[in-house]
Amino acid sequence: MRRGTKLYSLPALLVLLFFCLIVLFVSLPILSLFVKTSPDSFLRSLDAPFVMDALRLSIVTSVVTMLIVIIFGTPVAFVNARYKYPGKELIDTIIDLPVVIPPAVAGIALLMAFGRRGVLGQYLNLFDITIAFTTVAVIMAQVFVASPFYIRQAKTSFEDVDRSYEHAARTLGATPLRTFFLVTVPIALNGLISGAIMTWARALGEFGATIMFAGNFQGVTQTMPLAIYTAMQGDLEASLVLSIILVIISFAVIAAVKILMRRRLIHAQD
């Protein structure tokens, strides 16, 4: 029995060891940000003009990005969840593509499309409309890389809606549009909110596409990730402050999504 117990305990110990190593590997760098920053230096660096500019710009652009993605992405997700049409798989693949392509590639692609000599940008330039290296370019880069997170989640949420409720509403005289807003959306709301939160978080942390397409100009295109990159060259405390803010926001986002998904699961079981 003892020999069998030892054979059983060895794999268990290995699993426990691997578990602890992974948790330590992930948590140690994050905890190090807080260990290396004192409350005084945090507050002092928080008052730096470029820190506040980056924080303000990141919040504004990411919120605008989230609203744009919700407005335009919701119909796309609903159509892909409910209807079949030629080329649907190709469209789904194209929508998901920004998730897997490198952010730098996304930035170059946007520049080649909307830059002053881009496929579309060259015609916009004739009307003195410049997109690249502006705040609009920041939002476009964020929309490009973050929209799949909402569309994929929204599509799944719409697919999970019990259509018998929609049929009941239609038999009671509700129009398709009224049924969508009063029946479908409320049922899928938790999934839509979690997708919107993930989209906002992805937009907030966007770096590669932004620096390639929008540049790194303080107060105009320098978001928090770009400000961290710039501050690393001369102001480590400021970069730590911005990093801690992003870590706190990311933790809050993940916690919010988990709570919403748990509520969704409980609601589905009921």
UniProtKB/TrEMBL annotation:
InterPro entries membership: MetI-like, MetI-like_sf, ModB_ABC, NifC_ABC_porter, Sulph_transpt2
Any one Gene Ontology cellular component term annotated for this protein: plasma membrane
Entry-linked Pfam families: BPD_transp_1
Keywords from the named record: Membrane, Molybdenum, Sulfate transport, Transmembrane, Transmembrane helix, Transport
GO molecular function, one term: ABC-type sulfate transporter activity
PROSITE patterns in the cross-refs: ABC_TM1
Membrane topology: Multi-pass membrane protein
Domain of life the protein comes from: Archaea
Intracellular or extracellular location(s): Cell membrane; Membrane
Transmembrane segments: 12-35, 55-81, 93-114, 126-151, 180-201, 240-261
Start and end residues of each ABC transmembrane type-1 domain: 55-257
Family membership noted in the UniProt record: Belongs to the binding-protein-dependent transport system permease family.
Record-given protein name: ABC-type molybdenum import system, permease component
